[in-house]
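hey so i finally got around to running the thing on that chain from the lab meeting. sorry it took forever, my laptop kept dying and i had to restart like 3 times. anyway pasting the input first so we r on the same page abt which one it is
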Amino acid sequence: MIRMGGADAFMLSYETPRSYMHTFKVAILDPSTDPDGWSYGKFYRDFEDRLHLVPMFRWKYAKSPLGLNHPMWVDDPDFNLRYHVRRVSCPAPGDHKALCEFMSSVYAYQLDRSRPLWMMWVVEGLDSGKVAIVTLVHHAYVDGVGAAWNLQQLYRPEPGWKPDHVPAWAPRPWPSWGKRLWWGARDLPQVLMRNLPRVVSGLRRKRALEKRYEAEGRKPHPKPVMMHPTPINCALSHGRTFVCNSMPLDKFKAVSKGFGVTINDVFVSCVSGTLRRLLQDMHYDADRHALVGGVPFAGVRPEGWQGLGNFATVDYCWLHSEIEDPVERLAASHQSAAAMKEHLKASVEAGADLNALLQVCPPWLISVIRWYINRQRGALGFFGNAALSNVPGPREPIYINRYKLDSWFSTGQVFDGSSVNMTMWSYCGSANLCILADEKVIPDGWLVYDYFVQELDQLVALLPDTQQDPQQAVSAT
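ok and heres what got predicted. didnt touch it at all, straight out
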């Protein structure tokens, strides 16, 4: 039995039949690196032999009776791998756009809570000869850093690697209602004593921090209640739009070096410019105000929890979609990201970051928050106007047996009010961008992807003279 943390429980309690709390992991395999070519049976056996390296795939969710404590993960005594792994063929014409259309429909598949909370589709028939491994994994299991660790358990840098020993699956008995009630009551004092004093103290220190910012004349730090509702903010429908593709990471590096900013600053600026174009398409005056962006950050993981649990937190930054000039917007994004990092550091040190707060938040309170946000019909979103994330991935190729991982895409969720998510993972010199949105907000995700590429290309074209000091290029704006 593994007791969930507050952030894990949040991901379960916040879910509705329209708001799916799973993440999306897409691996594009290149079978040409195996002399024997592609074999579904071989992939299935290789994956089965690696399951013990990611034990959460055999755990299912168990409530704490009476809502007394956070839920638990318990061995599934009826685990059936063939239920979770499905073999399909990509719809015609089998190109990348057809794959994305298939994945859009897959994302809108709500996971069955009576089983382990993940599903995998092995998609054959791609016109490139490659194979897509499309996986839904509930966010209650693990955050982005933990997911990256699990990726490196399943995929290895050595072609042909196999585990030396595959232990037999021996699930522990399912605990009775009474036993789960006793465990919840037994663990509750420890959960509260470990977290509640720190949170109370942290909230006081955070309030003092905000007063200091105000006294110094700083612009208030963004938060969801400060977001302006726009056409991209709504209560979620059932459907999703999902697109993903790769672009050269070197473009981001060139802009980063040329303007003296970070790669993440470039990403944030391009997201802001993309949303500006999108709002203008919707006949919304994008010049009126900045947007609020919600950004997850890695937290400290306890020893032994490398591939399990949500230890990330969330903070917010201004997305300067109100600035038309790309270089000026990049400079403002640089300042916004720096201010967010400073605020996050202070919040974590104070013990008042979101992850700490969720540790003492009972499931019923999360349900009330979800109900309240839904009632706002898009005027309030947990991630502000849009969610965005930039994650560094492996720099060298990795393999499952002899099948090379050609591309890797990953994204989180959208929420009521926060109906657009833009996530980028780097892998082997590529920047792999995913755009996930409510399909009623963005019917055509490729239009948004193209806007992002155009924003990046604009910055590349505007790189300053190499003789100019890069830091001055930002300061001058």
